[in-house]
Design goal:
Layout: H1 5-31, H2 35-56, H3 66-73, H4 84-91, H5 114-136
Helix pairs in contact: 1-2, 1-5, 2-3, 2-5, 4-5
Length: 138
């Protein structure tokens, strides 16, 4: 834990701002029907939002799985459990939306469609909203 709460808050806000940028990029990709890219960017938005909450507590981690990040957050924010399903939905987009060797054949465009993007946006929005609420109204 860091002894500089104001510095932690500033850093957390930077990460939350970057999360919002990923979310906006995901929406742009979805409008362009680039579903795999949208899904990945929504996952990234959620990842950075959760890391912002950890940074607020003075924690720095190199973890990418959202379920893992939720486990690390539970001591600080017990109510984070309500994001479990959103994290499960988004974690499935982290690797196969980017790497063709994570799929049996074809590319991610063959597997991820508009409905996946809609679900990712809903889940990512839920995580981003939670993080904003915690940082703005601790």
């Amino acid at each position: 834990m860091s002894a500089e709460p104001d510095a932690n808050l500033r850093e957390a806000q930077r990460w939350l701002e970057q999360a919002a940028e990923h979310f906006a990029a995901a929406q742009w990709a979805a409008r362009g029907k680039h579903w795999p890219s949208a899904c990945f960017q929504f996952q990234q938005a959620a990842e950075l939002a959760l890391k912002a909450l950890l940074l607020r507590q003075g924690e720095r981690v190199r973890v990418h799985g959202l379920l893992h990040l939720l486990e690390l957050l539970r001591p600080y924010y017990p109510e984070v459990s309500r994001l479990d399903q959103a994290a499960r939905n988004l974690d499935r987009f982290y690797i196969p939306t980017r790497y063709p060797d994570a799929l049996p054949t074809g590319t991610s465009a063959d597997y991820f469609r508009e409905q996946d993007s809609v679900e990712a946006q809903t889940a990512g929005g839920e995580v981003l909203s939670f993080a904003r609420q915690q940082l703005l109204h601790p």
